[in-house]
């Protein structure tokens, strides 16, 4: 049974069945108890009424017995019983033979009567229905002088119980059928919006992620489900858009060096060349291959970082020493472009991390600062610690970054179109890789920039082991 509405109807009907059976059983038990209690109470009233008249020497006439039964039962039943016994249990010969027959006097009832105790019994009657009997002693001066025995057939009680069971046997199935039908209709109506949402979701594909699922407008659980699904579709749309843009940009970045490489090789093969010319062509081809390898390596690093499987060889790393290595390696580049490169490396700052990954992070940030600084500008590199966190600041006096571009610059293949004149533009992966490495170390990168005044990139890495955020 795969349909939710069918399962809901089945569960609802089953629960209702159990509830009705329990309620019916309880009602039947209460009805039986109430009928039995009323019969016993009425017999007790009849017996007491007759015992008050049993002190005299005269015998009871049938009219007196009928009047006593009518008084407590509301009518004089045909199958009524009355007998008067002496203390020894012998029937009073003055009483006429009852038309309903005689009832036995049990030894238990006789013994109880001798002790002044009344006894209720259910005994077989002259017909097929049992008889409820009350044996009550007549006491005088603390001793028993007579026994009064009254009884009534339980035919009406049994018939009442049977009618009750027949009524329940008819009403219960009808009620269950009506309840199941109503439950099925209600479930179908309640789940109709789910069918519409499923149909709308079925129409949405990777090419139509901009479509949305309509809600119920009632603010209920289904409306919240539609809102959640629409939020998920929005995230998928954004992710697919980024993947498409990433694929297009990666293809473009790979196509450029491959086109250059192919063109140079084709030109070299058109006519005989001197060894020096072949060497120049091969050198240029090797540079393009290095560029492709660097680009692929960066893409692979980003993919592994995005998937959370970036390998990290975590060991204590002195960021001050690492920054000094990066400083001397890139100072030559800064000097060649007439850029002053300063450093503030005062004291060791040790963090747990991957030395090669952290070196690439610092290299990318410093290389990016030099790339966007015009000749005569200044680039500064500093390392410090603050509140258990290592802080690396890379600042430049470049053109700065507009506020709306501060987050975009960390996306793959995103470039700010304000590099220094004569500077070779990179693939646009440096800052993305830097942020991925910082995140893998449980840290973050924060950028502060003022257009026309320069930018400062600050890397925060915890000095104690911490899971990547």
From TrEMBL:
<dbReference type="InterPro" id="IPR050428">
    <property type="entry name" value="TCS_sensor_his_kinase"/>
</dbReference>
<dbReference type="GO" id="GO:0000155">
    <property type="term" value="F:phosphorelay sensor kinase activity"/>
</dbReference>
<dbReference type="InterPro" id="IPR004358">
    <property type="entry name" value="Sig_transdc_His_kin-like_C"/>
</dbReference>
<keyword id="KW-0902">Two-component regulatory system</keyword>
<feature type="domain" description="Histidine kinase">
    <location>
        <begin position="249"/>
        <end position="465"/>
    </location>
</feature>
<feature type="transmembrane region" description="Helical">
    <location>
        <begin position="164"/>
        <end position="187"/>
    </location>
</feature>
<feature type="domain" description="HAMP">
    <location>
        <begin position="188"/>
        <end position="241"/>
    </location>
</feature>
<dbReference type="InterPro" id="IPR003660">
    <property type="entry name" value="HAMP_dom"/>
</dbReference>
<dbReference type="GO" id="GO:0005524">
    <property type="term" value="F:ATP binding"/>
</dbReference>
<dbReference type="GO" id="GO:0005886">
    <property type="term" value="C:plasma membrane"/>
</dbReference>
<keyword id="KW-0812">Transmembrane</keyword>
<protein>
    <recommendedName>
        <fullName>histidine kinase</fullName>
        <ecNumber>2.7.13.3</ecNumber>
    </recommendedName>
</protein>
<keyword id="KW-1003">Cell membrane</keyword>
<dbReference type="Pfam" id="PF00512">
    <property type="entry name" value="HisKA"/>
</dbReference>
<dbReference type="InterPro" id="IPR036890">
    <property type="entry name" value="HATPase_C_sf"/>
</dbReference>
<keyword id="KW-1133">Transmembrane helix</keyword>
<dbReference type="InterPro" id="IPR003661">
    <property type="entry name" value="HisK_dim/P_dom"/>
</dbReference>
<keyword id="KW-0067">ATP-binding</keyword>
<dbReference type="GO" id="GO:0045121">
    <property type="term" value="C:membrane raft"/>
</dbReference>
<keyword id="KW-0808">Transferase</keyword>
<keyword id="KW-0597">Phosphoprotein</keyword>
<keyword id="KW-0418">Kinase</keyword>
<keyword id="KW-0547">Nucleotide-binding</keyword>
<dbReference type="Pfam" id="PF02518">
    <property type="entry name" value="HATPase_c"/>
</dbReference>
<dbReference type="InterPro" id="IPR005467">
    <property type="entry name" value="His_kinase_dom"/>
</dbReference>
<dbReference type="InterPro" id="IPR036097">
    <property type="entry name" value="HisK_dim/P_sf"/>
</dbReference>
<keyword id="KW-0472">Membrane</keyword>
<dbReference type="Pfam" id="PF00672">
    <property type="entry name" value="HAMP"/>
</dbReference>
<dbReference type="InterPro" id="IPR003594">
    <property type="entry name" value="HATPase_dom"/>
</dbReference>
């Amino acid at each position: 049974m795969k349909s939710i509405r069918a399962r809901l109807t089945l569960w609802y009907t089953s629960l209702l069945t159990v509830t009705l059976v329990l309620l019916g059983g309880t009602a039947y038990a209460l009805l039986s108890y109430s009928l039995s209690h009323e019969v016993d109470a009425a017999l007790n009233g009849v017996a007491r009424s007759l015992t008050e008249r049993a002190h005299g020497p005269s015998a009871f006439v049938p009219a007196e017995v009928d009047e006593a039964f009518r008084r407590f039962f509301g009518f004089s039943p045909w199958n009524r019983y009355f007998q008067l016994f002496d203390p020894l249990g012998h029937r009073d010969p003055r009483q006429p033979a009852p038309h309903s027959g005689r009832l036995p006097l049990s030894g238990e009832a006789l013994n109880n009567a001798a002790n002044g105790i009344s006894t209720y019994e259910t005994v077989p009657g002259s017909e097929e229905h049992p008889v409820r009997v009350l044996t009550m002693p007549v006491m005088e001066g603390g001793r028993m002088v007579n026994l009064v025995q009254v009884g009534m057939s339980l035919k009406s009680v049994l018939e009442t119980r049977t009618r009750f069971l027949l009524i329940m046997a008819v009403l219960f199935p009808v009620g269950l059928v009506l309840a199941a039908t109503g439950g099925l209709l209600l479930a179908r109506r309640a789940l109709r919006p789910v069918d519409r949402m499923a149909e709308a979701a079925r129409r949405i594909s990777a090419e139509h992620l901009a479509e949305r699922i309509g809600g119920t407008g009632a603010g209920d659980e289904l409306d919240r489900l539609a809102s959640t699904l629409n939020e998920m579709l929005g995230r998928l749309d954004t992710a697919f858009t980024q993947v498409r843009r990433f694929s297009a940009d990666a293809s473009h970045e790979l196509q450029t060096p491959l086109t250059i490489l192919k063109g140079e090789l084709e030109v070299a093969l058109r006519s005989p060349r001197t060894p020096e010319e072949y060497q120049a062509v091969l050198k240029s081809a090797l540079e393009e291959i290095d560029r492709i390898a660097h680009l692929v390596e960066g893409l692979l690093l980003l993919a592994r970082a995005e998937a959370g499987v970036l390998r990290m060889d975590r060991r204590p790393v002195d960021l001050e020493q690492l920054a000094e290595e990066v400083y001397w390696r890139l100072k030559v580049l800064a000097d060649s472009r007439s850029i002053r490169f300063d450093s503030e490396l005062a004291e060791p700052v040790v963090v747990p991390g991957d030395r090669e990954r952290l070196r690439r992070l610092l290299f990318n940030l410093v290389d990016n600062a030099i790339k966007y600084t015009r000749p005569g500008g200044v680039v500064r590199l500093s390392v410090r610690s603050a509140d258990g966190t290592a802080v690396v600041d890379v600042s430049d006096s470049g053109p700065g970054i507009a506020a709306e571009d501060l987050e975009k610059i960390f996306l793959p293949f995103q470039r700010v179109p304000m590099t220094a004149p004569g500077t070779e533009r990179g693939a646009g992966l440096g800052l993305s890789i830097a942020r991925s490495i910082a995140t893998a170390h449980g840290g973050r990168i924060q950028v502060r920039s003022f257009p026309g005044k320069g930018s400062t990139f600050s890397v925060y890495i915890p000095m104690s082991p911490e899971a990547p955020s």
